[in-house]
From TrEMBL:
SUPFAM superfamilies: P-loop containing nucleoside triphosphate hydrolases. Coiled coil: none annotated. Residues 39-105 form the Helicase/UvrB N-terminal domain. GO terms for molecular function: ATP binding; DNA binding; hydrolase activity. It holds the Pfam family ResIII. This is Helicase/UvrB N-terminal domain-containing protein. It comes from Trichomonas vaginalis (strain ATCC PRA-98 / G3).
């Protein structure tokens, strides 16, 4: 009975795969280079017990990638996550080899917030570039959000100044 259910699931997945083959292939995580099979369109993370060589492996990957494309490093940032929020001895020993990527140390308890903020900055950067490339004619959804946010901030600042002026006037009207 269970085998039949699993076979049915396999068929469903096969049908969806065949139906969406082109889209799925385009969305597939692609290697940077034939000799360097790490993702070029995502985040690479290493999770393993302490002392297992994660930092060493990560730094070595960044150094190898530098050799694949001498002009443009794939890793804009190499984020090292630690409990102390400081580089450990491994990073301090090998950091001079990493010439093209910026090494950043993030405290492990702050990593998810940092990633969220970083993604927002990238999204904003891409939206601005897209808007510029459209010759300022076609703001995408993110650019419209930026405009609304900027307008709201200006309005809030104007309101704050206005309320301060009212408060000063009221203070002046108080009997001495």
């Amino acid at each position: 009975m269970l085998e039949k259910k699993f076979a049915d699931i396999d068929k469903k997945f096969e049908n969806v795969l065949n139906k969406n083959k082109r889209k799925l292939e385009n969305a597939q995580i692609k290697p940077i280079h034939d000799k360097f099979l790490f993702a070029q369109n995502g985040i690479t993370g290493l999770i393993a017990p302490p002392g297992s060589g994660k930092t060493f492996t990560y730094l070595k990957m960044a150094a190898q990638q530098q050799e694949l494309d001498e002009k443009n490093p794939f890793y804009e940032l190499v984020v090292i996550c630690s409990t102390s929020g400081q580089f450990d001895q491994t990073v301090n020993s090998f950091k001079d080899i990493i010439k093209k990527s910026k090494l950043v140390c993030i405290k492990d308890s702050e990593l998810l917030d940092w990633i969220k903020k970083y993604q927002r900055r990238v999204l904003k950067y891409n939206a601005i570039n897209e808007y510029i490339n459209s010759k300022f004619k076609d703001p995408n959804e993110e650019m419209q959000r930026i405009f609304r946010e900027e307008t709201l901030q200006k309005q809030t600042e104007r309101d704050r100044i206005h309320f301060e002026e009212i408060a000063i006037l009221r203070l002046e009207d108080l009997p001495s």
